[in-house]
Amino acid sequence: MTELTGVHKGYEFDIADLLRIMERLRDPSDGCPWDTKQTFTSVIPHTLEECYELVDAIQQGDLPHVAEELGDVLFQVIFYSELGKELGAFDFYAVVDGIARKLLRRHPHVFAGGAVEGRVQGSVTTDEVKANWEAIKQKEKGHSKTGGVLADVPKALPALSRAQKLQKKAATVGFDWGELSGVLAKLSEEMDEFQQAVTENDEESMAEELGDLIFSAVNVARHLGYDAEGVLRQANEKFETRFGDMETAALEEGSALSDESTLQMEARWQSAKSRD
């Protein structure tokens, strides 16, 4: 069995030390003035920032940095756990116990009898795993009493991620296009409606139809098996790289993009694209 306590060989500190460090930081008598003032709400922006920094490190393939950012994300868990303990609501060990129980419960195809070392004979497909996972979640959440299938999709998710999650949830009860062709047709329809709103110069309608268009584009990504947020991140990276190439090329010629015409910049953009 894996040792869960004590310092690992070659390292100076363990999880108990980290928990104690958090206690010291929050000590009202001699803790850190900043840390002692924090609340669940005030820590949220830092949690989001740390998660995005972790994602960025992973996408950059910088594994030492990934380890560092994982530590920062873990510290967010430790921080919230300390706040929960101070309020008598929960502590770190309750968090660990809760996620362990959930993983055992939601993976009956791995953990026979819900036991860590329980082993299931035979195998299941990925589709079966996904179906069972959703069914178990539905049972846990008791959606019939809490507002429906979409009730547990967090409102704080980035808009693209939340759109894809909402679509995925709706699909679990059959509200979905059976074929990609239907999704593409809907995307085309939304584009036509947006263009009509633009033609009519209806600002309110343009905003609404543009939202529908983006939502439909997310649905295309979902049907193709892509993560819409990830796809857009890649597009952002590509644009950033190409634009940087344009700036570099202009600088090497003693120019600046701000001084060039639209046609000149378009030529530089096409040149940058050709180097991809």
Architecture overview:
The protein is mostly helical and about 280 residues long. About 70% of the residues lie in helices and about 0% in strands. The longest helix is centred in the last third of the chain and has 25 residues, at about 230-250. The protein is extended, with a radius of gyration of 25 Å. The model has no long low-confidence stretch (mean pLDDT about 90).
Keywords:
276 residues; mainly alpha; Helix Hairpins; 68% helix
Q: Please state the CA-atom Rg, rounded to the nearest Å.
A: 25 Å
Query: How many strand elements?
Result: 0
Just name the CATH architecture of the domain at 154-226: Orthogonal Bundle
How much helicity do the residues have?
55-70%
Strand content: under 5%
Total of helices:
12
Query: What is the CATH class of the domain at 154-226?
Result: Mainly Alpha
CATH topology of the domain at 154-226, by name, is: Helix Hairpins
N-end to C-end Cα span? 49 Å
Average pLDDT rating = 91
Gross geometry: extended
